[in-house]
């Protein structure tokens, strides 16, 4: 027994001790394996001295985790999520200023973070459905369509508290209500009606797709990139851009305050927003670039089409960044399961 | 020995009390103080907000009633099973008796996922029922309190089953015979004699089931939806940035858990312990007579085992399904070993397995050593010191994992060595430490029980023959305690290996354990790979479980 234990411990020590001498670079990101694996391979090929480690989680979960670890930061780069969440991160002192080489090539709207964060991609909320069960004639084309009687119990939604996309979509509804009536009550009412239609809130995007594919729900609100990735896999899912406008999200990147490998992190940030990496990511894993110096010919076809069809909604981003958390807390208490 | 060196043993006792208070009590106290705003200005604001919010009371109430209902349901399954397997003899009894305990080898998160694929809307069972009855909609939805209770009952009846079986085996048959001779019928004997005698086993199991369901996180997290209990409420408050609120919720849940512990312990006190004392003669098993009775018992037994093993089988099946090949068919159309190969091909993906193994090993060894030291000191010192040690050993058991994780994260994210606080958050040490603390009740209990049964004359003999303390411990005490310690160690190891609640709060990239990798694989639509991790976890847990069984027999 004692010998078994000893061998066991030695083997474990040997296994944990192995490393290859490269500098680790830790990314916290909601971007998913498709993008992260691609970026890892390409960036490591260009930087043989660095070893990219990534943890994939919801964008709000990144904020929570970076905040919990503030005394001993584990991440070097906070890569992805709506810039409204990054704005909260700045307030909490979780980001360090760094102005990447490509800062001048993104529009002013992607540079609102005063050097703490910059938009790299555009995330676009869409209406996403299973084309095998939703007839062409009844496809929802705008937000209000989701409240139609025919969708009762056929909508599933990704857990909104954890997801930057859902927080932004709901935030837009509530910010509109503020702009038109002075408070969020009407918006909450709209969300309550959506809640009444909702069959289930699911804990992660993968479960959401799984349930859509397996027809447990027929329609959802989600994001363009994942819709395109799913289609590439050959599943019968399709999408529409909401006709009254959709909140085009600045999907940002920033350097974590107190990062353990700040130089490596800066190299990564410079690289990822560069022309070459931006185009690579757009072509292979469907990220709409924030850079405005790319010609339509350089962009893949899907991106040209998207740019033509998207109706950007007018959104008070600052209001969402400031009030978002309070709003979502109220949604959680007063709307979820109450509609 | 305690007579010879009272001062030394008291010093050791005090040292252990201090160490355990620092590990167990201090983080909880700090969380409590932070919830009150101590350090940044005293405030009852968040407590007041908590009291004023209907949803918080709702979550608290749901936590309590779900736990009470889980206790009742698991007792209803576990107790009859224990009677059947302990009292009657039928073909396959031994094998089945072991299989029935297997839900223990299914870690919480893995079990929940298996249930999803089995009884979820598009799970095997639901689709089969839907097809058989020709329904256009799935027959049920695995959501809300029903789903949570199903998972709880499945995973917690084992406590009743194991405890009551052990209790029955220790039961002195003469008591029942006496009742029968005095004219009591079988029903009366059952309620007036047998069940009261089993009381310690029943309260022990009830306590364990109540605490486990109060702390349960995976099931309400995946199936809860809008049905919020305290554990999920804490995590969502923290996620939404309401840190102070999550601390208040943490404190409230800890208080409820401690109140539950207190109530159950009180309930159990003052009863005459009949089972302890001299070991009686266990009643012999009734062999089922007649071909029909034996046949039906066997059929029911195997059918039951199959139902209980379905989640394990589901997991194995899912681990063989290649990505994105299974949509609306009843059974997966393609099966191969691709997911296993994918895992073996990428060393990075093996890392979580290595992590979980070393962290669980270290935590278990630490918990056994500390548990043994504290238990020994508690028995030797006796009095208040001994009682204090016993309480400290039991506290982590009553405190839900989420609470402990948040408390540890609070206490060890500040660098103040003079106040006993160090930055451990983000280091590889915080998770093994958390596992260790959470395993203390198991190893401490095991050591206490073992030591109490130990004949102290053996230790005294060793001492009088000139063996020093250390030698006595190594050559006499530990070998004698081996069965008890091995059982506790394997239970501690299984718990640490499959832990999800504490891990999700405290993991880092370098220490991410299997459960976290399962969650992220699911997030990345790698259901098959997630299932492979689940199968591995299950296999190692079953291995540890078997090792325990072997030790017990030896």
In short:
The complex is a heterodimer of chains A (339) and B (554). By secondary structure, chain A is α/β, with parallel strands linked by helices. Chain A has helices at residues 2-17, 32-46, 59-68, 83-91, 164-181, 185-197, 205-213, 224-232, 262-272, 275-285, 301-309, 317-334, and strands at 23-29, 50-56, 77-82, 95-96, 117-123, 125-130, 155-158, 198-202, 219-223, 237-240, 249-256, 288-289.
Give an overview in words.
- The complex is a heterodimer of chains A (339) and B (554).
- Chain A has twelve helices and twelve strands.
- Chain A is α/β, with parallel strands linked by helices.
- Chain A folds into two domains: 20-123 and 249-299, Periplasmic binding protein-like II (D-Maltodextrin-Binding Protein, domain 2, 3-Layer(aba) Sandwich), CATH 3.40.190.10; 125-247 and 313-334, Periplasmic binding protein-like II (D-Maltodextrin-Binding Protein, domain 2, 3-Layer(aba) Sandwich), CATH 3.40.190.
- The model of chain A has no long low-confidence stretch (mean pLDDT 91).
- Chain B has 554 residues and is mainly α.
- Helices cover 75% and strands 1% of the residues of chain B.
- Classes of the chains: A alpha/beta (339), B mainly alpha (554).
List the helices and strands and how they pair.
The complex is a heterodimer of chains A (339) and B (554).
Chain A: H1 2-17, E1 23-29, H2 32-46, E2 50-56, H3 59-68, E3 77-82, H4 83-91, E4 95-96, E5 117-123, E6 125-130, E7 155-158, H5 164-181, H6 185-197, E8 198-202, H7 205-213, E9 219-223, H8 224-232, E10 237-240, E11 249-256, H9 262-272, H10 275-285, E12 288-289, H11 301-309, H12 317-334
Parallel strand pairs in A: 1-2, 1-3, 7-8
Antiparallel strand pairs in A: 3-11, 4-11, 5-11, 5-12, 6-9, 6-10
Helix pairs in contact in A: 2-10, 3-4, 4-12, 5-6, 5-12
Chain B: H1 6-35, H2 45-52, H3 54-87, E1 88-89, H4 93-99, H5 108-119, H6 124-133, H7 144-170, H8 173-181, H9 186-197, H10 199-215, H11 218-223, H12 230-239, H13 243-268, E2 286-287, H14 291-319, H15 338-345, H16 347-381, H17 383-398, H18 401-411, H19 430-453, H20 456-464, H21 469-498, H22 501-506, H23 514-523, H24 527-553
Parallel strand pairs in B: 1-2
